[in-house]
Amino acid sequence: MGYLRQKSILLAATVAFVAVMAGCGGGNAGNGSELKGQQEQSSGSVAPAKESVTITMEVGQALKEVAPHAFSQANIDEFEKQTNVKVKVIIDPDNQVKNVLQTKLSTSETPDIVVFNKVSGENELNTANYMLDLSGEPWVRRLTNPDALKAPDGNIYGFVMQSPLDAQAIVYNKAIFQELGLSVPTSYDEFLAVCEKIKQAGIAPIFAPFKDRWTFQIWTAGPFGYVATKEKPSLWADINAGTTKFSEVPEFEEILTKGLQLVERGYISPSALSDDYNMAPDAFMKKKAAMMIMGDWFVSDMKVKDPSIELGLFPVPAFNGKDLMISQSQITGMLHIPKAAKYPEEAKMFLDFLSQKEQMDRAQSDQPFMPSVNDASAPSLTPLQQEIYDTYIKTNKAVVEMNAFMKVDLTELWKYYQDMIAGGKTPKQVLEAWDEKFAELMSAANQPGF
Amino acid sequence: MYSYRLVIPALVMYGLVFIYPTITGFYYSFTDWSPINGILKFSGLDNFKYIFNNDALLLAIRNTIVYAAICIVLKNVFGLLLAVALNTAIRSRNWLRAVFFAPSIVSSIVIGLVFIPILQPEGLLNEFASFIGLGALRQYWLSDTSIVIFTIAAVSIWQWTGYHMAIYLAGLQSISNDFYEASTIDGANAWQRFRFMTIPLLSASININVMLSLVGGLRVFGEVYSLTNGGPGNASQVLSTSVFVLFGEGRWGLGTALNTLLFLIVSVAAIPLLRKMRKQEVEA
User: Fold this and answer.
1) What was the ipTM of the complex prediction?
2) Among A105, A211, A430, the residue to mutate for chain B (most B Cβ within 10 A)
3) Which chain A residues have a beta carbon less than 8 Å from that of B34?
4) Residue A49's pLDDT is what?
5) I need a labelling partner for A51 at 20 to 30 A (CA). Which of A70, A447, B151, B275 fits?
6) Range of the domain at A399
7) Yes or no: is domain B52-280 CATH 1.10.3720.10?
8) Across chain B, how many H-helices and E-strands are there?
9) What is the pTM of this model?
10) Nearest to A274 among B36, B143, B234 (CB)
11) What is the dihedral sign for C-alpha B9, B10, B11, B15?
12) Given B36, B231, B235, which is nearest A213 (Cβ)?
């Protein structure tokens, strides 16, 4: 029995060894010859994989919708065809994605590509520690604005297909403005006058979905950005260094006070903290509200829901006698490669593949965007995108939102805004409470100066 | 007799999924554990000092205790009253038992999503109040910071009262009718029979229900998360949602400390209560 058992084990081991070797050899030979031909057909910068592998690309659900270009199925199919490298997209629920990715990165069980907003990634995923430095990749030389992709340490930790073309502003119903003989306000006082006229006409001047925490900050985004860009150019750097506090900037308190006045004067409904973004289309379709503090994405959403409504945008008018500017978001949907990725070379290959003109153009055909590389075709923008580009970006009337400069998560500040609207905090108290929380978060993130 | 070795598989599982995480949780709550810090540092009582000096976390502790207290009292009072009512010989009692029990088999998240439109300013509850002439009672149920935690507790009571009713019903049905006949002959009225016979003989059911509502109340998460996500601001934040927030901020050490505190609060409240109530149990 013992002899027979030994023989059986030996036989099984031999068969397994031969099978494995045959499998590897066959696979390599097949892939090698097949890929050689494909490499000749490719743009030249995309090298084929030596063996068939599957790279994983992980992203939050909302981000995949907001920045869909990297997930173009046509591009993924083409990449798989050219390289024999499969791409598997893992989508996490929005309220879990940060925790899931933080846990995966800290335990080195990472996907091959992490798709996350640039600054949020620096703050929440510690990109400088966990992601590969991609500054030497070939596509970097072809970026229109490489500085925009640089982390605070000067390195580039990710690639992105699109340059920002969004606008956070006041969305308004053009028909209501026309019926009431109103023109777009260019100052805070004019804005109050417009609100008053709309209110007297029995329409809610501003629909405010403040149940969603992220919404009130849009009121502050452009004006805060204006202060930091035009009046105090070192403001964000000083705040991040711990040498200036939010409560020490009088303009911030003034901007919050003006936002709160809209609630106090009844231009924003007392039910604002019960209202969410999903209720906004109904309010606009039934002409219950004339304006909303929001952005271009709402105009696009409404185009689908009710094409008959014509909506426009104007910058948040929180000042008198100053330039009004729209604000733009940080770079969204940046593709990072973790240091612990199983297939980093194949992931780099995928990024390089996406950066090529063919892929940029193919993704543009699904949804137009401003390409991040200089050799892609010029986009055919929607009328709204064109208006944003012509009116604000080209004329330098756009600032980057505060979030893009912050090294910590701002959700707690947004909760303080809700407290303020509920009557629990004054604008001054909001800023003081945030100073305290900001210092704690910066300290927890090991930021110097805290 | 069975061998003690049969306990080993269950013991191993219990050790792996409860004892080990609990003990390591204690350890991590004294560190600065976070995804940013590559190296763990012992931080002594810093995390606990922070908790007791932070207004938002103190509010979360207060909300948790208020929520648990309301739930313990009202789930049990309503559950017991329903059980007594549905233990009588009414024709629709089986149907009614099923109706009252039904919400407890639905996920708290789903219940939350269903109640959001009902509790909106223009929602069913306010509209109904106006319809019956009680418009003065209209409230911003989920956005008024002074009442929001009570609103969430009310939804939870609606959901779980039927569950507690079922346990009380089982207890009531195990009480022999002889006791009631004897007490009736002795001249006891309905209230006396309820106070001096039903309540003592139900003590085992009361113990279970109080314990379940206590532990469930202190560990509440789903109801708060789905109805308000702790808002507006931090007005309805409770311990479990605060732990979730802290983990989201990457402050894992602090989050673990808060979770440890929750564990201690549940233990300190539950263990002496359980001992005291066990002593009072009466066999039917």
Assistant:
1) 0.79
2) A211
3) 444
4) 55
5) A70
6) 168-328+385-444
7) yes
8) 15, 0
9) 0.77
10) B143
11) positive
12) B231
